[in-house]
Design brief:
The complex is a heterotrimer of chains A (about 325), B (about 325) and C (about 500). Chain B is mainly alpha-helical and about 325 residues long. Chain B is built from 14 helices and two strands, in the order αααααααββααααααα. Chain C has about 500 residues and is α/β, with parallel strands linked by helices. The chains are: A mainly alpha (about 325), B mainly alpha (about 325), C alpha/beta (about 500).
Chain lengths: ~325, ~325, ~500
């Protein structure tokens, strides 16, 4: 696989699909609304993509080890609520609570591995738990985000808008950690061939716990970013993130099983999904169809991928 | 006592009834008087909807790991919207309305199966993708129009005979039919074989693809029918009416003693755990527990049940 | 048996392994010396792979003792210990992560490949080894393993086993390493094995290709039924004495060959199937009442051919009738048993349509069917309502026979169904197969056990996915089958 041959290979096209779909939707937006092609316009377009991208990355860690997290949406909501209450009023308590959440996530990972439980059901149960905690903490929408978070998410760096900087940094950092370090290799190996990792003498339990803990870390980042942007929180603020994050990972070229994931793709996928919603509003199509359009984009991309795979199989 | 213990060991669904009964007894004792009977009646009413979607989800889950229908909530909403529009508040249009809802279910089922088959993607992703489209259609169709259900439908959904909700009697009859479908028909046997070992089932002559198609359609149709009655029950459709049914439909299957790994399911457990889920909330309400606590307890019970029921046993 | 005075690198004494009711290893004694290449041969199920798994620490022995480099390793010997002691294993089913690159897969078995610049170091280690063993391999260190061809994957896995970083290697176990390599690459590997032995690394080579074994081994051990039945210097063996040592020497019972007259009355052809890659005009044919055997080494396309027929390829209209074919699996757990069900339901699943009254399955009728077959085929269980997993392996297999023979299908496909079944059960089932055939059923029978071919009217020997030889009548001999098993079909690379 070298030279021009690579550009005709199925692997290249599979890898390029997320970037192509984002470009396609972005071009559509610019064509409809040329004013979006500005510092301010891009800022507006991608602002809400950042927490979704973080949640997508969180979901990706779990998918990398062949599990699925149906609780990420309620977890992000809970974090937003903690951010808007404890973290603002009694920062130490807030930080302790967030650290506790990470520990719970790691324990869930251990439970799922040791008892060989279906992750879907366990995380489904946990979504009730997170939601319950969020409702207890903030029964009615309200609270307010700490100032430091608010000023952090509204930073205005020169030339390039903050959301784009954040997306690039996020994609690169996670890509480096997971795809380039010797440690990331083991993590992905668990998804690819758990037995091979065990045979080489590594503890799959520890690896899985680490991945779940990382999911919590990025879920926390997502929740804090969200509360910074929204300035206040409510217990249902991010419930949609559960399905959006799964869609983002898949859209970004990740596969459901086998440890084939792509951090850069996941960020691109999350951005595509966010942008699709704005695209519709520029088309003056009722926002009722936002979710539908996101679903349609997902199905189209999956169909394209199926075509690429089939062409490859024929060869 | 020994015999009871044996019975409960052999029939995993009995636990859910025991749990439902205990929660009811505790609550009834607390509120005292005839409140207990009224509570039982309300529990029957509310649990019927859980049972309807739960049975569909159960058949899907029986197909084995990876098979879950995430499009149930959106199907409920869409079919409620469509049927209310077709009925337009007149009794004469009830039957066409129900047929339209069934049509919605068949289409959603076909679409789900098509995605699984053509795109060769896992069922979770397929049903999730289609739920985006279905939900959106429901929002677009239903926005701003609140049509009251026809009087007869409202009556059927809410009426009580000697304190027993009529709808719950219908659903009990329906659940019996579904239990027979699961245990005594070629289809039911095939679904159960599919979930135990798909490859072995295929080699034993089970038509794998047809079974998968029928099962996803059944689930969607049941969700659609549930949507009609739910709209009748709550005085019309609303756009978030399906929301709680995603988690609930899976929860009743798991708590009811069906194996989440597939291949081993039962219908009675769906009924028991639907009652239990409602009564648990009622009990916590009675004790004045906050809404958050109710959610937490429900979640912990699901995690606890699946932890103790265990994952897929090593077969070799 | 050995005459060397130096103490062996590895010595196994009385190793036992039990899986449930199956005794996979019953007391294996084996010594391996430094710099020795030990060839290990034996039929499927002789226990070779189990033994190697124990040596690699992935399975724990049920009994016996194991010592490596003079150290006695009792219970609790695990993979990590094997790694530390320098024992590497190339497993038959592959231990690479398909989603990772070649270099990344190398890192997995080398904890020291970490920190800054680990990627180039890992790449260098594996590429050096690949170049050494397989010059001209065409693999790049950053290729994703899942994108490589099977033969390249195999090369990577083998080369990885020989890579050295911090700890040296003492022993490399190669389990059927050449199964997916072409002749030229296989030759490169055998060459390397010969060279590396001179450098003080011992190799255990497991192969069905006796030529390979004879070419590179210093010592040869022959395994049969969980025991080592012959173990001596390679020079003491030649091809025919190896075959004899592996082979089935004793066949209990009468010569079962069916007379031609059994078939005289029937002549309706039911199957005519040509394997897709078949270079010549040989094809699988079967008539009503015939028992047709598929033979050859394991995994040469026999199961695939059966599955194609199961899906209706090559089934003539006269054979299908709408009952189609039924399939009896050899790998019970994967292909046959429905583990949560009773014996009755396991038997009934292929006959449901005949048990209906209206829409409903009649449990009573299903029970009758199950009881009748329990009686006829001798399933040892108190009751057909007992769970299938409560039965021993052989009886589970009988349930699968009952399922297939109880169905309406006229064509019975058997995928080495007697794997791991005791001799008593076998004889009972053989009798029923003959009986059913004489009543007009057609049997297609893939078997790895030589004596079962004696029950067949005709035998197709498979090699590389195609038929290499068609034998019938008195031509069906162990010698002819073995010869055809190793025959290179023209055109095969």
């Amino acid at each position: 696989m070298s030279g021009l041959g690579f550009f005709a290979s199925a692997r290249f096209w599979r890898g390029a699909l997320p970037a192509l779909s984002l470009t396609f939707v972005l071009l559509g937006v610019f064509w409809l609304q040329p004013r979006a092609m500005s510092y301010f316009g891009l800022n507006l377009l991608f602002n809400l993509a950042v927490p979704i991208a973080l949640a997508t990355i969180a979901q990706m860690f779990v998918i990398a080890v062949n599990d699925l997290d149906l609780s990420i949406g309620s977890f992000v909501s809970l974090v937003a609520c903690i951010g808007a209450t404890w973290l603002n009023e009694t920062p130490l308590l807030g930080i302790a609570a967030l650290l506790g959440c990470i520990a719970v996530y790691a324990a869930i990972g251990a439970l799922i591995y040791i008892r060989q439980l279906p992750s879907i059901v366990v995380t489904l149960g946990m979504s009730f738990v997170w939601s319950g905690c969020a409702v207890l903490l903030l029964p009615t929408p309200g609270g307010s985000a700490p100032d430091w978070i608010r000023s952090l998410v509204t930073l205005k760096p020169p030339y390039v808008p903050m959301p784009l900087v954040a997306a690039v940094v996020l994609a690169l950092v996670v890509h480096f950690a997971l795809m380039r370090t010797s440690w990331g290799v083991l993590m992905r190996g668990v998804g690819g061939n758990e037995k091979a990792i065990t045979r080489a003498g590594w503890s799959v339990l520890k690896l899985k716990m680490t991945m779940y803990a990382l999911t919590a870390v990025f879920g926390i980042l997502a929740g804090l970013t969200l509360v910074g942007l929204a300035t206040s929180a409510d217990a249902n603020i991010a419930l949609r993130y559960t399905l959006l994050s799964i869609a983002g990972v898949i859209l970004g070229g990740g596969e459901f099983v086998g440890g084939r994931i792509s951090p850069v793709g996941a960020v691109l996928g999350a951005m595509t999904l966010t942008l699709t919603a704005s695209f519709l509003s520029f088309l003056r199509i009722s926002p009722d169809w936002q979710i539908g359009a996101q679903g349609a984009v997902l199905i189209i991309v999956l169909a394209l991928r199926a075509i690429v795979n089939r062409l490859e199989a024929r060869k | 006592m020994k015999q009871l213990e044996m019975f409960m060991r052999q029939h995993p669904w009995s636990w859910s009834f025991l749990a439902a009964f205990l929660t009811w007894a505790v609550t009834a004792a607390y509120i005292s008087g005839t409140g207990g009977l009224a509570l039982a009646s309300t529990a029957l009413s509310f649990s019927t909807f859980f049972v309807m979607v739960g049975i569909g989800q159960m058949f899907v889950i029986t197909l084995g790991p990876g098979n879950v229908d995430l499009s149930i909530p959106s199907t409920i909403t869409l079919s409620a919207v469509v049927s209310m529009m077709v009925m337009d508040g007149t009794n004469a249009m009830i039957l066409p309305g129900i047929l339209a809802a069934v049509g919605v279910g068949v289409l959603v089922g076909l679409f789900n199966y098509g995605l699984i088959r053509v795109l060769t993607i896992p069922p979770i992703i397929a049903t999730m993708s289609s739920s985006f489209l279905v939900q959106s259609s429901a929002i677009a169709l239903g926005r701003g129009v609140k049509i009251k259900p026809p009087a007869a439908l409202e009556w059927i959904s809410t009426a009580k005979m000697l304190g027993v909700p009529v709808l719950s009697l219908l659903v009990i009859a329906f659940a019996i039919v579904m239990a027979v479908l699961l245990n005594r028909t070629v289809y039911g046997r095939s679904v159960t074989a599919f979930g135990q070992n798909t490859r072995a089932a295929r080699l034993a002559g089970v038509p794998i693809e047809r079974i998968r198609y029928l099962t996803y359609t059944l689930s969607a149709v049941l969700a659609a029918v549930c949507g009609v009655f739910l709209a009748g029950f709550s005085g019309g459709s609303s756009l978030n009416m399906g929301e709680e049914y995603l988690l609930a439909s899976i929860a009743v299957v798991v708590i009811g003693g069906s194996s989440i790994a597939g291949g081993n399911s039962n219908v009675p457990g769906i009924f028991g755990s639907a009652l239990f889920l409602f009564l648990l909330v009622a009990m916590l309400n009675t004790f004045g527990a906050a809404a958050g606590l109710r959610l937490i307890l429900t979640g912990l019970i699901i995690v606890g049940v699946v932890t103790f029921a265990g994952g897929r046993k090593e077969s070799r | 048996m050995t005459t060397e005075t130096v103490s062996p690198l590895i010595s196994l004494t009385g190793i036992q392994k039990v899986f449930g009711a199956v005794q996979a290893l019953s007391g294996v004694d084996l010594n391996i010396h430094t710099g020795e290449c030990l060839g290990l041969v034996g039929h499927n199920g002789a226990g070779k792979s189990t033994l190697m798994n124990i040596l690699a620490g992935t399975l724990e022995a049920s009994g016996g003792s194991l010592s490596i480099a003079g150290r006695d390793l009792g219970q609790g010997y695990a993979v990590q210990d094997a790694g530390r002691l320098g024992i590497r294993c190339v497993f038959q089913e592959g231990s690479l992560c398909p989603n990772l690159s070649v270099a990344e897969n190398t890192r997995i078995i080398h904890p020291v490949l970490k920190g800054f610049g680990w990627r180039p170091r890992a790449a260098a280690v594996i590429m050096e080894q690949l170049d050494l063993i397989f010059p001209g391999h065409g693999v790049s260190a950053f290729d994703i393993v899942g994108d490589l061809s099977i033969s390249k994957r195999q090369m990577v896995e083998i080369a990885r086993a020989f890579t050295v970083t911090d700890t040296g290697i003492r022993l490399v176990i190669l389990d059927e390493p050449t199964s997916s390599l072409d002749a030229r690459v296989a030759e490169q590997l055998l060459d390397y094995v010969g060279r590396v032995a001179g450098e003080g690394i011992s190799v255990i080579l497991i192969s069905h290709l006796l030529g390979e074994i004879l070419q590179v081994s210093n010592k040869i051990a022959v395994m049969k039924d969980g025991r080592v039945v012959a173990f001596r210097d390679a020079s003491g063996f030649d091809r025919s004495s190896l075959v004899e040592a592996m082979g089935s020497t004793v066949v209990a019972g009468v010569a079962p060959r069916r007379d031609a007259e059994h078939r005289k009355t029937v002549s309706e052809e039911r199957i005519h199937m040509r394997p897709p890659e078949q270079p010549d005009d040989q094809s699988v044919r079967a008539q009503a009442g015939e028992v047709v055997g598929f033979a050859g080494l394991a995994g040469q396309g026999q199961t695939e051919a059966l599955l194609q027929i199961f899906d209706g390829h090559g089934v003539l209209p006269s054979g299908a009738q709408d009952a189609g074919c039924c399939f009896i699996a050899g790998d019970r757990q994967v292909d046959g048993v429905l583990p949560l069900w009773s014996i009755r339901k396991n038997i009934g699943i292929s006959s449901l349509k005949r048990l209906l009254l209206g829409m409903l399955i009649q449990n009573g009728k299903e029970r009758e069917l199950a009881d009748a077959w329990k009686e006829r085929i001798g399933i040892r269980a108190p009751d057909v309502e007992a769970p299938i997993l409560s039965l021993s392996g052989g009886n589970q297999q009988k349930v699968l026979f009952a399922r297939a023979l109880g169905s309406a299908a006229d064509i019975v496909l058997m995928d080495d169904p007697m794997r791991g079944v005791d001799i008593g059960t076998k004889n009972e089932v053989y009798a029923i197969i003959r009986q059913e055939a004489s009543q007009g059923r057609t049997f297609l029978w893939y078997t790895t056990e030589m004596e079962e071919l004696d029950y067949c009217d005709r035998v197709y020997v498979f090699r590389d996915g195609v038929i290499s030889e068609t034998l019938s009548g008195s031509d069906i001999t162990e010698e002819n089958v073995l010869k055809a098993s190793f025959k290179q079909v023209s055109g095969a690379a």
